[in-house]
């Protein structure tokens, strides 16, 4: 795809939070009775979670919401009747779907087979593998390959797990442990990174009638019945990062649909861009970003790894030397996001060097035309599209369709804001 633009200007409605939607669909599927989930975008990741919960026994029907791109889901919860078969769950490329549903499948069925696509098989499942092997649950998988077969009874008790690789393992257990017959204790044995994502999980669980008590790195879980509810998914701060980047590099982009008091960890992008000299302000319900002269900074992304590509894009055009740290987990994403972002920015003429857990970026005044691959990574594709306004010429983006993973309508937004996307 050829992407050309000389400005970014306009008002955009942000898509619903993918992270909240995953959680709401799962909680509704685990609730007895009928729930309604409003304001859902059917990205490929979201469809993976829908199909996973349907495979486990939920009945889900879709109807169009207020626009052609948003849906309302009617969810009839999973029956607790005994099943003899082990479900076959296809997670496509969704790490959230895979990591959330492994313990849920054990709690509901005692066995399952998981499959996936793309780079998903290479993303770590070690915390679960170690934990469940200790609990005498069979774990059969060839190294970095699907299928994954699990079988065994998930019994209540003490669950000790690392928080350094991904918070998704903790969230998956928090969904599953209330389904067991007695109390359980979940203990994070080290540092919990992306802790706000666990807070989001607890927030959704509370909405559906499940209360998790927390004391520092320990979660106390009692058996609970999920209750059906009506739930509206709020706007996605991680996707807003790319629109804000467009505004800071272009002319003026206003975003509607964001919750200024959200507990999404990626809401910190507003303060990060402001710390770089970005002009951002609220105009009623709109968050506005205007063209700015950006300054270098240092950002630790351990609690907001999904923001790293947007932050790196801003740093590439900021005055001075910037540093990204705390991003070791970026190497375990849809691409190795340290290497792929560094190589993509370098192809465009930016000055970037990798470190073990981040990047050192010396800002340049403008970027050059280049052919660049997204490496099938949706966030890399969005970053490159946003940067096209600073390119002297065009960006020829390969694997542009990677955005379907989280925001299928992204290139419509690019065109709406003044860009040209030519197949």
Automatic annotation (TrEMBL):
The keyword Protease does not apply. GO terms for molecular function: 3-phosphoshikimate 1-carboxyvinyltransferase activity. Pfam families: EPSP_synthase. It is found in: Cytoplasm. 3-phosphoshikimate binds at residues 18-19, 23, 166-168, 194, 306, 333. Keywords: Amino-acid biosynthesis, Aromatic amino acid biosynthesis, Cytoplasm, Transferase. InterPro entries: Enolpyruvate_Tfrase_dom, Enolpyruvate_Tfrase_sf, EPSP_synthase, EPSP_synthase_CS, RNA3'P_cycl/enolpyr_Trfase_a/b. The active site is at residue 306. Its EC number is 2.5.1.19. Catalyzes the transfer of the enolpyruvyl moiety of phosphoenolpyruvate (PEP) to the 5-hydroxyl of shikimate-3-phosphate (S3P) to produce enolpyruvyl shikimate-3-phosphate and inorganic phosphate. Monomer. NCBIfam families: aroA. This is 3-phosphoshikimate 1-carboxyvinyltransferase.
């Amino acid at each position: 795809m050829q992407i050309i633009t000389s400005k970014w200007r306009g008002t955009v409605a942000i898509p619903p939070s993918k992270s909240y939607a995953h959680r709401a669909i799962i909680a509704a599927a685990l609730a007895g009775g009928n729930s309604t989930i409003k304001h859902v975008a059917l990205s490929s990741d979201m469809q993976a979670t829908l199909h996973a919960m349907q495979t486990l026994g939920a009945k889900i029907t879709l109807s169009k919401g207020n626009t052609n791109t948003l849906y309302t889901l009617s969810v009839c919860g999973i029956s607790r009747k005994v099943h003899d078969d082990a479900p076959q769950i296809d997670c496509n490329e969704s790490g959230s779907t895979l990591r959330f549903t492994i313990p849920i499948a054990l709690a509901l069925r005692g066995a399952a087979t998981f499959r996936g696509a793309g780079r998903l098989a290479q993303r770590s499942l070690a915390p679960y593998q170690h934990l469940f092997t200790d609990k005498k649950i069979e774990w059969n998988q060839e190294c970095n390959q699907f299928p994954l077969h699990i079988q065994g009874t998930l019994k209540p008790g003490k669950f000790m797990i690392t928080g350094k690789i991904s918070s998704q393992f903790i969230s998956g257990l928090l969904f599953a442990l209330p389904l067991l017959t007695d109390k359980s204790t979940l203990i994070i044995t080290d540092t919990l990174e992306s802790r706000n994502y666990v807070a989001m999980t607890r927030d959704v669980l509370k909405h559906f009638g499940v209360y998790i008590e927390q004391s520092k790195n320990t979660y106390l879980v009692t058996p609970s019945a999920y209750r059906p509810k009506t739930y509206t998914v709020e706007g996605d701060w991680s996707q807003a990062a790319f629109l804000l980047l467009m505004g800071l590099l272009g002319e003026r982009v206003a975003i509607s649909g964001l919750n200024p008091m959200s507990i999404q960890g990626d809401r910190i992008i507003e303060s990060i861009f402001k710390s770089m000299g970005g002009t951002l302000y609220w105009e009623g319900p709109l968050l506005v970003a205007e063209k700015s002269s950006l300054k270098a900074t240092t950002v630790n992304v351990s609690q907001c790894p999904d923001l790293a590509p947007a932050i790196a894009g801003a740093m590439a055009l900021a005055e001075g030397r910037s540093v990204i740290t705390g991003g070791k987990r970026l190497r375990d994403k849809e691409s190795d996001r340290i290497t792929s972002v560094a190589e993509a920015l370098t192809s465009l003429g930016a000055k970037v060097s990798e470190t073990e857990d981040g990047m050192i970026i010396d800002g340049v005044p403008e970027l050059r035309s280049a052919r660049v691959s997204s490496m099938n990574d949706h966030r890399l594709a969005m970053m490159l599209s946003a940067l096209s306004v600073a390119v002297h010429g065009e960006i020829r983006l390969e694997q542009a369709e990677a955005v379907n993973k989280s925001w299928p309508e992204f290139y419509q937004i690019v065109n709406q804001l003044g860009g040209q996307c030519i197949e």
